[in-house]
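Let's practice the habit of predicting before peeking. Look at the sequence and jot down your guess about where helices and strands might fall. Then scroll down.
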Amino acid sequence: MKTYLYILISILIISNSNDIYSQFIQNNSESLFSDVKAFKDGDALMVLIMESVQADNGAQTEDSRNSGVDAGLSLSQILGGSTYGTGLETNNKFKAKGSTSRNERIRTRLSARVVGVEPNGNLQIEGTRTTKINGEIQKIIIKGIVRPVDVLPDNSIYSYSILDLTLFIEGEGTVTKTQDPGLITKFIRFLF
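Done guessing? Here is the structure:
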């Protein structure tokens, strides 16, 4: 009877060993006390996109040029006639002023997948999210390189900690088409 009990306990331990082992291989270090972080191909991590861009630019140019030439000839001294004079004057002025201002703020969360591990241990990540609401499609694409030390304990990372960050936010649908200029406007812009 004891033999059957030992066999039954052995079978239960072996059947659950995959679950126990998977907890160890999911972790960077094989400690039960460390956090679960992305460290190999296929692992997922949460990207906290917090981008804030503000740029101001201004320029002012002013240019002015004056030229003048005067010449005179007195024929009274030669022929006893009148005096003739001629003159040439040019005036050139240029004044320009321009300024640009841009302010953008993006806040969202996006899951990304580790698609490669560099020799120094840095992680190459890529992530895509596509949503469709009332016929309007919004697509967010993110790519970059993450240092493992920048990954937070909850397996997330801020976008400003990602090296070579590429972030695309694209829209397609009726609202986007409404904001797009018409064919005549596009043609005029093409000409000028």
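How did you do? Confidence is low (pLDDT under 50) at residues 23-29.
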